[in-house]
Amino acid sequence: xxxxxxxxxxxxxxxxxxxxxxxxxxxxxxxxxxxxxxxxxxxxxxxxxxxxxxxxxxxxxxxxxxxxxxxxxxxxxxxxxxxxxxxxxxxxxxxxxxxxxxxxxxxxxxxxxxxxxxxxxxxxxxxxxxxxxxxxxxxxxxxxxxxxxxxxxxxxxxxxxxxxxxxxxxxxxxxxxxxxxxxxxxxxxxxxxxxxxxxxxxxxxxxxxxxxxxxxxxxxxxxxxxxxxxxxxxxxxxxxxxxxxxxxxxxxxxxxxxxxxxxxxxxxxxxxxxxxxxxxxxxxxxxxxxxxxxxxxxxxxxxxxxxxxxxxxxxxxxxxxxxxxxxxxxxxxxxxxxxxxxxxxxxxxxxxxxxxxxxxxxxxxxxxxx
Amino acid sequence: xxxxxxxxxxxxxxxxxxxxxxxxxxxxxxxxxxxxxxxxxxxxxxxxxxxxxxxxxxxxxxxxxxxxxxxxxxxxxxxxxxxxxxxxxxxxxxxxxxxxxxxxxxxxxxxxxxxxxxxxxxxxxxxxxxxxxxxxxxxxxxxxxxxxxxxxxxxxxxxxxxxxxxxxxxxxxxxxxxxxxxxxxxxxxxxxxxxxxxxxxxxxxxxxxxxxxxxxxxxxxxxxxxxxxxxxxxxxxxxxxxxxxxxxxxxxxxxxxxxxxxxxxxxxxxxxxxxxxxxxxxxxxxxxxxxxxxxxxxxxxxxxxxxxxxxxxxxxxxxxxxxxxxxxxxxxxxxxxxxxxxxxxxxxxxxxxxxxxxxxxxxxxxxxxxxxxxxxxxxxxxxxxxxxxxxxxxxxxxxxxxxxxxxxxxxxxxxxxx
Lengths: 370, 418
What we know:
Strand order of the largest sheet of chain A: 8-1-10-9
Number of domains of chain B: 1
Mean pLDDT of chain A: 80
Strand content of chain A: 5-15%
Shape of chain A: elongated
Structural class of chain A: alpha+beta
Strand content of chain B: under 5%
Largest interface: A-B, 51 and 43 residues
Number of strands of chain B: 0
Helix content of chain A: 25-40%
CATH topology of chain B: Formate dehydrogenase/DMSO reductase fold
Number of strands of chain A: 10
Radius of gyration of chain B: 22 Å
Shape of chain B: globular
Helix content of chain B: over 70%
Low-confidence stretches of chain B: 1-6
Number of helices of chain B: 15
Largest sheet of chain A: 4 strands, mixed
Oligomer: heterodimer
Order of helices and strands of chain B: HHHHHHHHHHHHHHH
Largest sheet of chain B: none
């Protein structure tokens, strides 16, 4: 088949459907349900559903559009409809071609036969287009990286090299608690849940006194005891080193909370600020990139453990965590500890840098400058 | 030897109908209260408790480990007969097994009601975490309950057949169903029963000691963040105190059931033997706890101990744990004449059973009152009415199952030397 000079869709008239297309189906099948996803209220990725609906209204009427062309409108509509089914995974591409190949060939004639179809004409060498046909269409058939080295995308390399870290300069912390406030506002945490606190202590006797302000977010430990003890693996370290909680899996046993040496985990007892603020629960933070809509009485994260995640919903769009952004003394620094040239890495190498409770062996990714 | 037919004439239930009525009435009231409290728990969620993020575990977890311990202890007492062939112990092995099963059911009900998301109780069977003791424990508990049911089956099967053959009423029919169709009374069949009883018992000993109860101790001991728990001695103390509570319960049940249900003579030699064993284990328990305190002293991790001994809840340590769990029973168990007095032994047994509740609360709560970092708030926990109500209800469920079982099942061997 690779030697066939005229690339075209498989000839289905030969009987055995799909016998010729031994190559993997390159059609993007509809994403299967993620394994292990629990049924129940399905959390949404922010707004995508709504965006789709909005986009739908902008799409021109297919019938009107096709009627502008010389070819068969009905055939076009039928093929388009089935093509959508293929992309939703309801129809195999073999079945698609079995259904439409003949009619399409008849309608479009030689143009149809000579145009390569990347969906089915993938060659053994991995190319989806035959070189001869490519030449005819003035296409380049090299590796994408060779064609445009600037666009080279080495995903693995990029991912390995991220370890989110925070360095808090205690000399710059004035104990204003605005990080705590910003955190509560950003993450819309309920009463009793505060991903960040500032431990404020006064030492000595007048006039020899001093004061220590110790902001305490989650340490995002390298060896997190909370992850170790979770019976259902609902809490785990992400590739960027941040410790995550899967609200859809967490059973609310609170073992992680008991195991955390920093008291950084909070149980959501389902309380709210409705008495203080009207409609306090109407907007929730899209934590871990999931918008759960209005705060429900019994729906996650109520009944789950909650914790600081370095404002993942912010960092994934390139912003700093809210506490870092708001810090008035610029005491908080956030960045990539895996990059030796980053500001946070340089700070961590300072002699002033310490980790909290280093003897626990947790190896926090939050450092303090004394 | 009393003849089998004579014993079959008996009704294994309450001897006194008025007592039966009163007992079920009490249970019924407690169950109603428990049901209402459980409804509040489900409706209001965890906000109905006095738990907090500082003290995330409380009464329910304390009762959970208490009943796991009771179960492991009762089971280990049953192996004295089933595995170690200790003389006279076969009289109590069924009681012990049945109590072990019920305690485990009660323990799991406590774990369940303690989950923030009760609807996700099955998640530990879908997702696991190799390094989590709790993940292992959940599986060990299920295996252990199945093993206990298997043991009880092999222990009472031949008597179930006897009941099914000689009693015409529905009681006979129930017994016939419970035999699961294995009705042969041949020597071979009975030998098979005994063989499997021993086999399951041998399998159950490590399961109960290392996984079920030792493992529950490990659950706490791995927590480096809580120095009070983070001791290699901790799981061992767990097992010892489990045996103490289990043995005390079995001893009390032995006397109570014979006094109230079957009106049979109490074997004073057996009582004396049980009482001596109990005294020995209480002393070992107290000694290990003392060693644990010494370790805390020398490693300067005394904050939790100070909280336990001088804090707001110090009475639960001195009066419940030390007084009822150790001192009072040791006094009652000290003289042979007392050990041979059934009612005194019931008192000693129940005193221990309650005292160990104090032990369990003092395991769970005080380390969660002391903050993990200086400057973080202290916890302040006393169970809410909903927590007390649900706990009473769950315990009543256990008592109900035990009573019903004791009324219908041949928990006293039908063939017994009198």
